[in-house]
Amino acid sequence: MKTNIIVLLFALMISVSVSGQKFITKTGHIKFFSDSPLEKIEANNRQVNSALDVATGGFVFKVLMKSFEFKKALMQEHFNENYVESDKYPTATFVGKVTNIKDLIIDKDGVYNASVEGKLTLHGVTKEISEKGTFEIKQGKLSARSKFNLTLSDYKITIPGNVGNNIAKTIEITVDLTLEKANQ
Amino acid sequence: MKTKILLLLALTSTLFLSSTFGQEDLLTMIEKNEKPMVDYTTATFKTTRIVVGQSIELPPQGNLLFLISHHFGAINSGYENLYGLKQANIRLGLEYGLTKWLGFGAGLNTDKNTWDGFIKAKVLRQSTGAKKMPLTVDIFANTAVYTTKWAEPERTNYFSSRVSYAVQLMIARKFSNSVSLQITPSYVHKNMVPTSEDHNDIFTLGAGGRVKLSQRVAINAEYHYLFKGQVVSTKAYNSLSIGVDIETGGHVFQIFLTNSYGEYEETMLTDTRGKWSNGDIFLGFNISRMFTIVEPRQPKD
Prior knowledge:
The complex is a heterodimer of chains A (184) and B (301).
Chain A lengths: L1 H18 L2 E14 L4 E14 L4 E7 L4 E2 L2 H11 L7 E8 L11 E13 L2 E14 L2 E11 L18 E12 L3
Antiparallel strand pairs in A: 1-2, 1-9, 2-3, 2-4, 3-5, 5-6, 6-7, 7-8, 8-9
Chain B lengths: L1 H32 L4 E3 L22 E12 L13 E10 L4 E8 L4 E11 L2 E3 L6 E11 L16 E12 L4 E12 L10 E12 L4 E10 L12 E10 L2 E8 L6 H6 L11 E11 L9
Antiparallel strand pairs in B: 1-6, 2-3, 2-14, 3-4, 4-5, 5-7, 7-8, 8-9, 9-10, 10-11, 11-12, 12-13, 13-14
């Protein structure tokens, strides 16, 4: 019995230390880009919170919508007021996992392919997404990059007719995160 | 054997647990890691005017606002005057957002060829999050100079007689995405008034607000109460304006009815000659266009 308990504790300790390999950032960068015949619109958010658990592949990020910065102040106001309704839906989150996390070797510098799937919540709408990206390990730092497209109508973001030619229906999202080992 | 099974069970169960609950844990972890942010309230009003008078809004930093204000003549002036359409009082104005909290502007009014210049400073900003502030407070000050010929050129006229000043305190709150209110106590100083009974220092108390009908259309109203006994020799009424804001990309179009013919603060507050119940009201509109002069600096990738 005593050995059983010891074994159990030991097993727990192992699993805790295995799942304890977490990488984290609060200065991640997400860019979105809208390319339409009349106008190219770009916005950057450099205050993205993100964490990756390299043992389980668990991967999350969270962005404050009001932290997206535009070149034109009026666009930023319209983005928050009219399109994503930041007062009502202040953040966007992704909760998912890297399905091929086993391929990633933390101690070895290099570029690894990553498949990510999970739930993206934006404008109060949650959708399952599945995207490809890369990880790069360099001197103990982990960079995660991905570029994917997002259709506005999937998230109930409506563009009125009179600016229909100024804003693309599908927006290109670029994620660029540099994560550091979290202090446990 | 038994211990091995137990070990396996324990391992798989904890691994299973950490993989299912792990993602939510990660979310909690980054939420703990988040630095507290101040969430400043934006777009309390769509533009720098509620209707005729100033709102707490400034042009965004580095942005130039070109504002055309147009009031037609009185609606009750009859068919001969095409119900006011033949007449126009226009103000052409420019406003610039120097910083997030300081703006300035100038305008030319066709009413007595009056030039006006102002500065507007945001003293408090409504915010939630790391810093909570229930109100936005602005201080506004302007100077207006009329430049038409002297009415009585034969007497000694001083330039200072052409000058008047207005100072306003604007206290506003955006209650929800659709409802915003503003209280505006104002003080006007006129260097010269028509008679000795008229006060040089005039106080008014105003209130205004907006209700959004959709994301791009809002109804606005504004009222300024002129305390009695200050303007005596001319008949001055309280200013009341009701309008609709229509927003289309870089433009905000405001169309309204008002009993104030004038478009700068001094005339709107102390020289509103129209009376609503007589139909002595003016159809008017403001068109504004925003130009980005200085783009916000963004770090290079």
